[in-house]
Amino acid sequence: MSDLCRIAGAIGLAAAACLSPTAGRTSDWTIVSVNGTAATGQPQITLGADGTIAGNTGCNSFTGSARFENAMLVVEAPLAVTRMACSGDGLARQEAAILQLLEGETAFTHDPFTGASTLSRSEDQMALAELAASVFDIDFVTVDGLSGPLNIRQAPGTDAPLVTRVLPGTLLRNQGCEVGDTYDWCNITFLDASGTTGWAATEYLRPAPAAVRAQQGLFDNIGTLECRGSVEGEVALCDYGVARDGDHSAVLVIYDPDGGERVVHFAEGELAYAETAEGTASDAQDSELSGDLLVVTLGQQTYEVPQTVIVGNGE
């Protein structure tokens, strides 16, 4: 994990390099809006693990080569673009803006708590939402992919009575989903004291990221691990809770015996960055693999974290 990733994480953002094709993953995004206007025609961008970029503007398709460098998306040469005539001035303007942003260097930012990403240069900006895995078997979801509140209905269907509306970014418990004619639907429950239940269209639900679940104390596993207040200090037991994402990424919350909390972020099974519960970055962060243990040092404190805590059993 690069220093750029650690620094970006410490301020609550994931740098482009931390999510880039060079990190060994293919990323698929839908373009949500262009210069503040909702996108039409379902434009998308795919950044391949092999350094390719492809997608469509909502009208024409494009392909090319791209890389991430210093929190910038760098398109290495002019894109190859199909030349179908776009219907309407709005779609033509959208295509022109997208292709202009995909020329040369464009700033890339990502919010790990909402999953939202942005490409921007000067006054031009393109909002992206990463295409997520199916939420059918996911216990906790967040509302995403729309600019206003999401309708929660009494039954699966757009003609069902309205229960309430919920803002983007809200964390919900998923009680189960079913396939519909126009939309698929999930039966969701609010996590607040109201316990409100209803049905939401899956198109606007995403698997809740580990950072969001950990912040709410919704862990995949809890337990204890060995910890020391200093290198020569006595061994103690610290309680922990862990929320996992895919690709061996996780957020580990450690509760020190003195009542303090450490929030430790891992990416691809390695320490990414750590902070206190108040969001202050921890000093002198380091980790070392010792057998099946990941020995994490945060300032004067040392924590022995079994690898299975981060990646889960059998992974």
Automatic annotation (TrEMBL):
This is META domain-containing protein. It comes from Meridianimarinicoccus marinus. InterPro entries: DUF306_Meta_HslJ (IPR005184), HslJ-like_sf (IPR038670), Hsp_HslJ-like (IPR053147), SH3-like_bac-type (IPR003646). Pfam families: META (PF03724), SH3_3 (PF08239). Gene3D superfamilies: 2.40.128.270, SH3 Domains. PANTHER family: DUF306 DOMAIN-CONTAINING PROTEIN, HEAT SHOCK PROTEIN HSLJ. The lineage of its organism: Bacteria, Pseudomonadati, Pseudomonadota, Alphaproteobacteria, Rhodobacterales. It comes from the Bacteria. Residues 136-209 form the SH3b domain.
